Amino acid sequence: MSAGLTTLLSSPDALLLMLLAIPIGMVFGAIPGLGGKIALISVMPFLTGMDPLAGCVFLISLHAVVHTGAAAPTILLGIPGTGPSTAVVLDGHAMTKRGEGTRAIAAAAFASGVGGVVGMIALALIVPFALTLMTHISYPEIFVLTLFGLGFAAVLSGRYLVKGLIVTSLGLLISFVGTEPTYGVQRLTFGSLFLIEGVDLITAVLAMFAVPEMLTAKRGQQRKMRVLENDTSFMTSGVLSGLRDIVRHRWLTLRSSVLGVIVGIIPGLGGDVAAWLCYGHAAQTSRTPEKFGKGAVEGVIGPEAANNSKEGGALVPTLFLGIPGSSGMAIFLVALVPLGIAPGISFAERHSDLVWAMVWALAVSNVIAALVLILLARGLQRLAQVPPHILTPFVYLLALASIYITTQEWRFFLVLGAFSVVGYLFLRLDWPRAPFVIGLILGPETEEALVKSLSLWGTDFLLRPVAFGLVVVLLVSIHSLPRRLSRRAAQTQEAMQHAD
Amino acid sequence: MVRYLIGSKPGGGYDRYGRLVAKHLERELEGSRFIPENRGSANGILALREVHDAALDQDILLIFNTGLLLSELGGQDGMDMSLADFNWIGKASSEPRILLVRKGTGISSFEELRQRGEGLIFVTSGFGGASNVQTTMINTTFGLGLKVVPGFGGNEAEAALLKDEVDGLLMSESNVPQLLEADAAVPLLAFGRSELPGLQDLPQGADVAQTEDERLTAQLITAMTTLGRITVAPPQMDPARVDVFRDAYARALASPELRAEAAELGLPLDVLPGDETQEIARNVLSGNPRMRDLVTAVFEN
Fold it and tell me: Which tens digit of pLDDT belongs to each residue from A130-167?
């Protein structure tokens, strides 16, 4: 492993390209709709003839920092830069509206940096057991994990449990629009071909969160933000607050990072799932779950740490088995071809220095990207100070552009319109919106894992050791949930009485 | 300006071939500008429809997923156009398909699979996808008694095989070497000639076929491997314009520049002119009615 660091540091080309990749990757993340996959595809023509080490470091750094860059539009404008950023938009943007944009950006940056480093450490520890781990965590275990995720919806609903369950069900229902992935049955498409692949996640999140927030934006809020953010000492304290948040929630940061690594290792589970599982986990373990969705910093830290650590996990099957751990890693494998590199079973043995140099590059570029984001926080937060009547049209345009870039289908603007009405009503009627996205993201994963588990193991799938253990934990959690929720409701009520 | 649609999402094989071909077509047709656009929705059916309905004077081409041929043969919803009507510009590559089993099954030949295959789990792409239709046809016509489980993408299927969760699959030749390197799989049968080490001497599907249905299945799968990475133009395009594109395509694919770039990108080439490709496709689509019945039966089950 240390030889990998030496290899990286002894190659000026690799270091130079790493530094070049970081701003490029962050820009691709910051422009909604682009993201890591498009970034990799865009640079592929320039890879031919490049030194393999420098090329690999360039690619890995480029892909690693995308989510860090995505934090800026997500937190400041309420427009998620990438799919996994959808888990940050709720609390990150709420913090911006409260005048704490810099703090949120700083917390996101520190969490991303820690996530990247933890991802690397966990990767180093896990590699010897990677195949065993993959063998023990398969579809049955994914199924039970997604049930945990759906259970988080109840926690996120706070005192509106029934409303939360209704909203989760609505998210699940919408998630089933499109072609069922195993048997190809079309559901709820109403004969329309453009719905065959289901409802686009970015469209749904923009409709449920960004558009209603813009519709209800008040000038007073923005003025308050301007006063707060223009103050230099506040700026400094914003960054320090973000750092303090990470220290205060260090165990959440670590747990989310490790969870991100594990999700990354499992082929087929994407970054969206990692981010939302950690968002739910943050809410479940928070002392103030009622603040989630209203600007809880844990709602930024959990998904941001997982976003970046997941990339480390995804490298395990990609580099050590030649099996991409995510769709981004699939394109990464393709991008390695012009460099003459073909990861596979014995690749890590034959090129261990190269592999570990890439792992180090992943960690170092995450840390540098986090620092860059912190340095840019002050400039970026000025965006949020622009008066709503000027900013809002641009944000709408950005939202529409991101939808078109992602889907290349104008009819998703109609979906945006329809869901925006639902999101607006939820906001006005004070119904929780996060459970909708949890249902939307975890619905297909839950269904697919269940169908595959039953196809491969029959009903015995729940008797696999890890799955069985998870089921026991799940049952215990369900049993204790009403008690915990009522205790938290009482705490919340008490806190409100004190406030009065 | 020529719009060059790619009937798949960014990053896959179709995308890579499409962008390579578009770039070199632009060089061959002086003064032209080719704009590649990914149109992967609904397996590329929407892109196919866009090309089908293009205005007479519109320069638009499409590289499409050959799985659509099976959709047409099986009479699938949404495929109310015939691929035979399009103007086929040419094809860039072929990719033989390999039937293999997990090493732990102890099976070492296709004959053994015939005798001991009952109940073995073979995973495929989603229902109706090319690998699902082809695996199901092999299973049914050769009477193997396999349990065919759909819903596994290529990488997912490989991972499942490595983890001993499944017993076998039908896959593109380019993905087989890493399974052989891991000593995890035994290749049994090929559809199309492979030049890769360890796969050259495999028996062909047609060699082991004994009945008419088995022969038709082997013939269809082999034809599908031949028809790889095809570029088509709208059915109504002016024949003179079609010839311009076909000539440019042939020159581009024969050029040392494209060949060198394809080699660097790891994209094997197996070029066929548009008229010959169209002939093969027409034979598949309008050939033996029994072949159509076999594909339809897969979709109807």
Answer: 767 777 878 898 888 888 878 777 666 666 778 888 88
pLDDT at A308: 85
Residues A297-355: tens digit of each pLDDT: 999 999 999 988 888 888 887 777 666 766 677 778 777 777 777 776 667 767 778 88
- Interface subset of A 386-415, CB within 8 angstroms of B: 407-409
Q: Is B61 helix (H, G, I), strand (E, B) or coil?
A: strand
Per the CB < 8 A criterion, the answer to whether A241 and A291 are in contact is no
Q: What is the pLDDT of residues B215-252, one digit of tens each?
A: 999 999 998 888 888 999 999 999 999 999 999 999 99
- Cα–Cα dist A177/A35, whole Å: 24
* A–B interface: beta-carbon pairs under 8 A: 104
Q: Where in chain B is the domain with CATH 3.40.190.10?
A: 97-223
State whether B11 and A48 contact (CB < 8 Å). no
Q: Which residues contact B14 (CB under 8 A, 6 or more apart)?
A: B6, B7, B8, B63, B64, B65, B229
Give me the helices (H) in A50-178, please: 52-64, 66-77, 86-97, 101-126, 130-136, 139-156, 161-175
Q: Which residue has the tokens 């890879």?
A: A47
Written as six digits, the tokens of A33 are 């709709």
Q: Are A320 and A277 in contact (CB under 8 A)?
A: no
Residue that is written with structure tokens 């169908």 in the block: A451
* Tokens coding A390: 């000027």
> Residue A500 and residue B6: Cα distance in Å, rounded?
62
Contact B163 A138 (CB under 8 A): yes
Q: Looking at domain B2-94+227-287, which of 3.90.600.10, 3.40.50.300, 3.40.190.150, 3.40.350.10 is its CATH number? A: 3.40.190.150
Nearest to B274 by CA among B69, B75, B90, B17: B90
Q: Locate the domains of chain A by residue range.
A: 2-138+159-436
pLDDT at residue number A219: 47
Report chain B residues whose CB lies below 8 A from the CB of A183: 126-127, 150-151
ipTM reported for the complex, 2 dp: 0.80
Token pair of A378 as six digits:
């002050």
The highest-level CATH class for domain B97-223 is alpha beta
Q: Which two tokens stand for residue B120?
A: 């073995």
d(CA A447, CA B276): 44
Residue A231 scores a pLDDT above 50? no
Chain B CA closest to residue A136: B163
Could you tell me the two tokens for A198?
């289901």
| Nearest residue on chain B to A343, alpha-carbon basis | B178
pLDDT score of B188: 97
Q: Which residue of B has its CA nearest to A132?
A: B163
- Interchain contact, B266 vs A337, CB within 8 Å: yes
The chain A residue lying nearest B264, using CA atoms, is A338
Section A441-466 average pLDDT: 90
Confirm or reject contact between A189 and chain B (CB < 8 A): no
Q: How far does Cα A399 stand from its chain's mean position? A: 18
CB contacts of B45 in chain A (<8 Å) are 193
Q: Give the Cα separation of B130 and B112 in Å (integer).
A: 25
Which residues in chain A touch residue B162, judged by CB atoms under 8 angstroms apart?
Answer: 131, 321, 323
Q: Where in chain B is the domain with CATH 3.40.190.150?
A: 2-94+227-287
